[in-house]
Amino acid sequence: MTALGTVVLAVAALGLFALGAALGHAGARRQQENPADVGTPVERATFHTLHTASLAAPPLRAGLTPDTARKAARRLRPLLGTVALALADEESVLAWDGTGEHHRAAAAARPAHTARTRTFPLTCPDARCPVRWGVVVPLTVDGRAAGALAAFTDRESAVVVRAAEEVARWVSVQLELVDLDRARSGAIEAEIRALRAQISPHFVYNSLASIASFVRTDPERARELLLEFADFTRYSFRRGGDFTTLAEELRSIEQYLELARARFGRRLEVTLRIAPEVLPVTLPFLCLQPLVENALKHGLEESVERGRITITAEDEGTEARVVIEDDGVGMDPQRLRDLLRGRGGPSAGIGLSNVDMRLRQVYGDDHGLVIETGVGAGTKITVRLPKFHPGSAR
């Protein structure tokens, strides 16, 4: 969740807490009637408020639709204690919960783009209908109108107005988080598309050329390499899912390096030391492969000597520690800083900065890439992956 999302959620939570405390006064009478109740009226009312809000949140986090509005309204009306509650978008009333639904048009007649809270009396020819007064509060997302929350009671009430405003503010936060989630998903998808685009056409050409070179001399080897190439591209261009397992990512890396071996032959040495217990750990999709590609491109390709790439994955309690190391030409630390800031120029690619940013987004700033390098000293990249993280479930 972004800092903005955290702040607005905290503000709304405070509003609901205040609402729960206010409702606690109404519970004082109930405690007198049932002294065996546990907790003070304020504590119990606050718990009830937050529990109800937690039940209403999941539908709203899917956006404002007739189905999600109906589910949310069913939870929110008891929270307000009104005879009816309606949720509307900018065009129509999506859901009505409670009695007096024949007054539905009254909620729709107050447009969702109303800039402020409005209250109004209602008349009804049905003497048994309890709906006699209403309040409409706008729902806003990022400063724009997104809909309205309307509450209906049997009489005018300043307490209901205040409570409806707090609940509407909380609903607005949930809808704003929907936009933030969509923006985040779009950004992650854009990052993955950028990584896919970075898979070097030069590498693809060289891989196919290497496969072709074995067609006459070693048809079985050509067949194996072709299957590796097909599996590698299938994984790299798969659709759906922001996360993968370490086992799947390492399998793709093995295929990538197998294709590289076909080109470099004995010039490339690869060592893998993988602890089996870390293979199920989840991580962002296409997170390690760009680092291996960087080791190959800026290590072996820029060197005329024999090169070694070592990949280690170790169990470190609550984390898996992955190290990708090469003994290539290395790079100047200032150039590395420019690469991580996305200022390396078009020829430098975006792999390092992209992976570093995605790791920080998912796990926090203390889980960015740790890179040790120097001119002529090779490069060592360390990635720490929490074994259990709610944001990395597949």
Give a quick set of tags describing it:
2 domains, Beta-Lactamase, 394 residues, five-stranded mixed beta sheet, single chain, alpha+beta, elongated, 20% strand, five-stranded antiparallel beta sheet, 12 strands, Heat Shock Protein 90
Quick rundown:
The protein is α+β, with helices and mostly antiparallel strands and 394 residues long. The chain has two domains: 3-182, GAF domain (Beta-Lactamase); 199-392, Heat Shock Protein 90 (2-Layer Sandwich), CATH 3.30.565.10. Helix content is 51%, strand content 20%.
Explain what this protein looks like in three dimensions.
The structure is a single chain. With 394 residues, this protein is of the alpha+beta class. The protein has two domains: 3-182, GAF domain (Beta-Lactamase, 2-Layer Sandwich), CATH 3.30.450.40; 199-392, Histidine kinase-like ATPase, C-terminal domain (Heat Shock Protein 90), CATH 3.30.565.10. Helices cover 51% and strands 20% of the residues. It has helices spanning 3-33, 41-60, 66-80, 104-109, 158-198, 201-217, 219-236, 246-264, 289-300, 333-340, 351-363, and strands at residues 84-88, 93-98, 118-121, 133-141, 144-153, 243-245, 268-274, 282-284, 307-316, 319-326, 370-373, 379-386. A five-stranded antiparallel sheet has the order 2-1-5-4-3. It has a five-stranded mixed sheet with strand order 7-9-10-12-11, covered by helices on one side. It has a two-stranded antiparallel ribbon with strand order 6-8. Helix 1 (3-33) crosses helix 2 and helix 6 runs antiparallel to helix 7 (219-236). Mean pLDDT is 76; it is low at 1-33 and 345-349.
